Amino acid sequence: MNATPAQKGMLDYFKWAFIMTAVGLVLGGWLGWQSSGTIGGMATVFFICAVLAVLEISLSFDNAIVNANKLKDMTPAWQHRFLTWGIVIAVFGMRVVFPLAIVVIAADLGPVEAFLLAAREPAEYARIMNDAHLPIAAFGGTFLMMVGLTYFFDHEKNVHWIDVIEKHMARSATIKGIEIGLVLLMILLFSYLLEGAEAVTFVYSAIYGLVTFLAVEVIGGLLDASQRTMVEAAKGGLGAFIYLEVLDASFSFDGVIGAFALSQNLFVIAIGLGIGAMYVRSMTIMLVEKGTLAEYRYLEHGAFYAILILSVIMYCQTMLHIPEVITGLGGAGLIGISLWSSIRYNRMEQLRGREAVVENI
């Protein structure tokens, strides 16, 4: 008999994540032994898998919050589909297929040749991946920037964490397309800072990211609008599902590329990031079932601020290297502060409630 959300403890939500951690670390240790034949080599790969998992969790914690925000409005059937099919796409698609696809396109190789290159010549494979970083960062950064700005430029938004910023943004939301205009200005600014072919590549990739966001929004709106007119809501939430998958891909860009700084082995990277993705899935389920977003009113705000900062960092990474540790700690720090602010607000509300009770006695 399955426990209800109220009966579940925190550890219950992370059961499968713990199982995947054990399996992944054992598999990573085995890969290390196979490649080096030494205890030291096995321990090194084991450690890299663990660090990659932590890196993925720190970079994707805001992703879990945004996913939960979207999931709470989806039908139970589509929630289940995202948390099952979606995790397969996230782990296998973004951590294995996506890096292979980059090499296929960048090096003009077939899928099998790219796979063999990853297995036999990891250094060359990593070089091709790093060379493709600029267009990936421009595309992903633009998509995430639109996600963050769309949240704050909402005239119906009435809960504000940093009033001086968010109230003005909410009021300005009546200006149609203001977030698109700001993103286009950022694209122009960074294109001026780059030179020659890099500037052209940046602009084209960023525009593709913008168009992708708008296309996902339009398609999602059409699908979810049409499903409301159907007697049988079998397709309920398909638009939101597509949106979340593209969003997850954008979050994954930075982690997948940054992982090559720790290892050049595609399979080690897939194991480490896959473990991290399982924790993100578990956090998403917990946030939805426990109603954590409603309980901590500023948690979403912290996540979307982290998204905006990540998008700017991705833009900056087209010109200079920013350690992934800084990116992860920055996002985690913002979310931590927003959580502390939420707890502080709840305590003040409880105190006001007690004072009101005392006054009425």
From TrEMBL:
Domain of life: Bacteria
Keyword Hydrolase included in the entry's annotation: no
InterPro entries associated with the record: DUF475 (IPR007427)
Pfam hit, one: DUF475
Keyword Mitochondrion: no
Keywords: Membrane, Transmembrane, Transmembrane helix
Name assigned to this protein: DUF475 domain-containing protein
Regions that span the bilayer: 12-33, 39-61, 82-107, 132-153, 173-194, 200-223, 235-253, 259-281, 302-320, 326-345
Species of provenance: Ciceribacter lividus
